[in-house]
Amino acid sequence: MPSFITDELKRLTRDGLLRQTRCIEGPVGTTVLMNGEEKLLFCSNDYLGLANNAEVKNAAIEAIKRYGTGAGASRLVSGTTALHEELEERIRAFKKTEAVLLFNSGYAANMGVITAITHRSTEIFSDRLNHASIVDGIILSRAKFRRYPHNDVNVLEDMLRSSRAPQKLIITEGVFSMDGDLAPLREIISLLETYDAYLFLDEAHATGALGATGRGTLEALAIPTGNPRIIEMGTLGKAFGSFGAYVAGSSALKTLLTTKARSFIYTTALPPAQCGASIKAIDILDENPSLVRRVQDNAAYMRDALEAARLNIMGSTTQIIPVLIGDTRRVMELSELIFSEGVFIQGIRPPTVPEGRARLRLTVSAVHSKEEMNRAVRVICECTKDTFGVCRACGGGGCVDECE
Ligand SMILES: Cc1ncc(COP(=O)(O)O)c(C=O)c1O
């Protein structure tokens, strides 16, 4: 084995940073089968519970029957089917935007958009907690970039004021993937005209999960859509229970991305099954906007319960609820312990989150029951009591269930 592999593996093991996949032996629901045992699942981004929905699955099967299993080529060769165009049109109507372009994943969308719309002379202003796919897109773009402290609009404004760049691009997530808080979009958007800047908004965790009808963060914050200075992306693999991503903006933007976004051009198109599943997921959301309310009601219930138990949920206001632990090794031990008690909650470590900010990252869906949430909170309380030196369950005086 070459030493560059073994040495790096040793270092990662020593620092508690080695990562491993975990296998689920069946469909994703509020419970999953792992090693033959049923576990409560609280770390999936299947926010509306659509990943194993019968109608969504049937739509995928129908798409396979009509179009086969693979697109066979990239979109610009022979990989564009009527289903791809139908899905783009459905998302365009859903987002009330001029045009939509599909990408194969949110990661690919962020890489593709950021590199296609910027130049070396562009200056990018990126929230310090932005997702790795944004960071990687920025690095690949070779544009100048500055990171502003998380959600700090004052520092962002200072940076914009001092910038001499001919093109200024602000990038933020709507809902932050590891913190579950919202970007101050009203304030950020108010800077766009003044500083002749543009906004690229990552709605991976907001699409389908936020706003009265699931349109995302702008809807949740009652900000009008259609601002030509805003480009939005969202994913289909989270709330929509499918896979893929979209970018929403002007027709001119779509033409530019079609011509220049390398992660759109040089890859096989999304498989028909995923297009069929995504179309059905949008139908279901349009017919049942109460699903979004259910995610957010469940999330509020869970946040209240965790806060009542005096756990630090880091200012989350959404269905993504971190429980701050701090130490990298400890968070992984806790995740294991909680798993052994029947609840699957992934521990999140650097470099995904900053050093010293390791956390359990819980996600809540529309289909979790109160009993399931109560059980998860009880297990978290019991498992973390040694870490925090007090019984989180009874010490907080706000248990959602009896503490033994
Ligand atoms: C904020 C954010 N953007 C983009 C992505 C990438 O999306 P996808 O999983 O579709 O590649 C993720 C996924 O975890 C994310 O959290």
The termini sit apart by 50 Å
Percent range for β-strand residues:
15-25%
The profile of the biggest β sheet is: 7 strands, mixed
Q: How are the strands ordered across the major sheet?
A: 3-9-8-7-6-4-5
DSSP strand count = 13
The overall average pLDDT, rounded, is: 95
Helix content: 40-55%
The level-1 CATH class of the largest domain? Alpha Beta
Q: What pattern of helices and strands is seen along the backbone?
A: HEEHHHEHEHEHEHEHEEHHHHEHEEEHH
- Low-confidence sequence ranges: 391-404
User: What structural category do the secondary elements indicate?
Assistant: alpha/beta
CATH topology heading of the largest domain? Aspartate Aminotransferase, domain 2
Give the bound compounds: pyridoxal-5'-phosphate
DSSP summary: helix tally: 16
Shape: globular
Radius of gyration: 22 Å
Proper CATH architecture of the largest domain: 3-Layer(aba) Sandwich
Summarize the helices and strands and which ones pair or pack.
Blueprint: H1 3-14, E1 31-34, E2 37-41, H2 54-67, H3 75-79, H4 82-95, E3 99-103, H5 106-117, E4 122-127, H6 132-141, E5 144-148, H7 153-162, E6 167-173, H8 185-194, E7 197-202, H9 217-220, E8 230-235, E9 245-249, H10 251-260, H11 262-265, H12 272-287, H13 290-308, E10 320-326, H14 328-340, E11 343-344, E12 347-348, E13 358-363, H15 370-388, H16 392-395
Parallel strand pairs: 2-11, 4-5, 4-6, 6-7, 7-8
Antiparallel strand pairs: 1-2, 3-9, 8-9, 10-13, 12-13
Helix pairs in contact: 2-12, 4-12, 5-6, 13-15, 14-15
